Predict the structure.
Amino acid sequence: LRIQHPEASLKELGIMLTPSIGKSGVNHRLRKLSMIADHIREHKEENSHDNKTNSN
């Protein structure tokens, strides 16, 4: 939804959801998604480093 509406406020994004949620709920969900993305990136970096170490 954020990608489709980059200029929308958190409140506006919350209204677009079904069921609608408040801006604090949208903020919480976006922060959680960001944390998950960071975790995935870290995991990929660890695997990439492990693969380079094992191939030497």
In short: The two ends are 44 Å apart (CA to CA). Residues 23-55 form the longest helix (33 residues). The chain has a mean pLDDT of 91. The chain has two helices and no strands.
